[in-house]
Structure formats: structure tokens, C-alpha cells
Specification:
Layout: H1 8-18, H2 22-42, E1 50-51, E2 55-56, H3 57-66
Antiparallel strand pairs: 1-2
Amino acid sequence: MKPAPPSRAAWLVDAELNGHTVEQTIRYLSDCDDAEERSRQWSAPPGVILAGDCEPRWLTRLRARFGR
């Protein structure tokens, strides 16, 4: 599994000190998108269907039914 990319602040500091090529920038942005996708996939256990504001559908239905 790929490690998470550096934070944006760390990336900007490194850019100021060393500079980045176009290829490095594209790879960094791609890695950030990949990391975001992985975090979305891992945010819910398998079999849970997310609805609305990323909460399980059964919880959304309970809140709607009982007004909480």
C-alpha cells in the first residue's frame, strides 16, 4: 500500500526550498486524489450504504422516524 502524500504545508515548504518539476507536481496531486479516495472507502465498514451526509442509511431513517 502506498504511503500518504506529504501535507500541503510540507509540499509548499519543499517547493520553496527545492522547487518541483511538472511531473512531481502531477504525481503529488494524483497521490492526494488516491489518498482521498482510500479514506472515503475506509470510512464505513463493508456492507454499509452511505446516504446524505455520509451517515449510514439506517441511521438516517431512524432520525427521520423519531425526529432526532
